[in-house]
User: What shape does this take?
Amino acid sequence: MKIKTFGRHNKEAFKNIGRNGWMSFASISAVTVTLLLVGVFLTLVLNLNAFGDQLEEDVEIRTFIDLTAEKAQQDELKAKIENISEVKSVTYQSKEEGLDKLIDNLGDQGEVFESLKDENPLSDEFVVKTTDPQDINDVADQIKKFEYVENVEFGKDTVNRLFKVLEISRNVGLGLVIGLLFTAMFLISNTIKLTIVARRTEIEIMKLVGATNWFIRWPFLIEGVLIGIFGALIPIGVLIYGYYFLTDLISTRYPTFFIDLLPVTPFVYQLSALLVVLGMIIGVWGSLTSMRKFLKV
Amino acid sequence: MIEMNDVWKTYKNGIKAINGIDIKINKGEFVYIVGPSGAGKSTFMRMMYREEKPTSGKIIINGKDVGKMKSKNVPRLRRDIGVVFQDFKLLPKLTVYENVAFALEVIEENKAVIRKRVMDVLGLVNLKNKARFLPDELSGGEQQRVSIARAIVNNPVILLTDEPTGNLDPETAYGIMDLLDEINNRGTTVLMATHNKDIVNSFRKRVIAIEDGLISRDEARGEYGYED
Assistant: This one.
C-alpha cells in the first residue's frame, strides 16, 4: 500500500468515528470496561500464580530422624531416600540448625526460644524435595516405612486447597472476561455497521469504479483498531497507577505482607502491551464481523 | 467486445431473470435495451460488471470470461466499464469536481493525472464552470452529466446506462442523448436500458428487446415498439 493511501484510510477511519460519535463512544466505553476488568483480573491471577509457584517451590517433606539412629544409619537412610526416583534433593539439617531457623523465622517472638538452645527438643531431619510437587504424597508414604524415621511432615493439604481456590477464581474470571470481550466486539461491529450503512452510496460507487476490495475494507478495519486502542488507554492508566499505589502501600505499611507482589516493572509494561493488543484484536474482530455481513465487496 | 452464450440467471429466491440469452455486441456500438419492467434488462447489464453471476452460460467482456473470473480480478474488470444510474448516485457532500475525482482517487491514481482527466471530462460534459458546486445546487440534467462524467473519467471501453433519462424532462433528456452520442463517437461502446419511446424512435440505434428473460427482438436501427 502506498503511504498516501494509508494516510487516506486513516483519515477516513477518524472521520467514521466522528460521524457516529455516540456509537463510537459507546464501543470505546465497552472496550474500556472490558479491558479494565481484564487488567484487574490478570493482575490478580498472575500474582496468585506467582504466589502459587513460590508455594510449590516450598513444598517439602520434613523427615524427622529417630534419636537412636547413629551416623551410619542416618547415611543409610539418606541413601535410601535418594534412591526414590521422584526425589530431587535430600538435605540434612541438624537439630541445632533447625532451631536457629525457627528462631530466625519468628523474628522478634523467636527470642523466647533462645533459652531452648541447651535442651533442644527438635530432631535431626532430612529435608526432601520432589521433582514434581504432585508426587509428594507417594514419596512421603514410602519414606514413612523406612527404618529410623520418626515422623514425616508436609503441608500438602493447605497447598492443595489454595490451588483449588485459585483454579475456581481463574475459571470464573475467565468466563466473565470472555463474555465481556464478546460484548465489546459486538458493540464495535455494530458501530462499524452503522458507518457502512451511512456510507453505502460511497461504497457502491467505489465498487463500481473498480476500487479493490481491500481499498474499501481498510478504513473500517482501521476504525475498529482505533476504537480498540482508544478503549485501552484509560485501563492502562488506571492499572499502572493502581499497581504502583498498591505495591507502594504494601511495602511501606505492611512490610510483612505474606504475598510478594510481582515487581512493578516490567509487569505494568507487559500488562499495558497486552491490553493494547487485546483492544486491537477486539477491534479487528468486530470490524471483520461487520464487514463480512454488511460489506459484500 | 460483449458476448453472451446461452446465459441463464435464476436468483436464490427462485425468480428466473434470464432464460438463455445469446448476444454479440461489437466495439463502438450504441445499443438500446428495451422491454417491460422486470423483464430482465437490469440483470442483463448487472451480469456484465459481475454484480450478478450467471447461473449458467458464458459472458465474455473484452476477451475475459466474467462468470468464471476470480473476485480479486473483478475490480480490474470494472475499471473497463462505466455505469450510470437513473438516480445519479452522487455524493451530496462532495463538489462536482470531487465527485468525479473520487472515481480516480479510489483506484489510487496520481493527483496530477486526476486533475487533468477530471477537468477534461468536465469540459466534455460542459460543467467546467460548475466544478465547485455541490450536487444539490445543480439541476437534474446537470447532476446526470456529473454522474456520466464520473463513469467515463477512467476512459472505460464500455458505458452501461440504466434509464439515464428516467428522471429528466424531454429537453434535458435530449441533451443527455447528445452527450452519450458524443461519448459513443469517441469509440466507447454504449448500452442504454430505457423506457423512453421518444428517444429510441428519434435517435435510431440498434434495439435489443428483452421479454421474460429472453431476447424477443434485435434490430439494427430499430424502434421502441411498445405502447406505454
Chain A is about 70% helix and 10% strand.
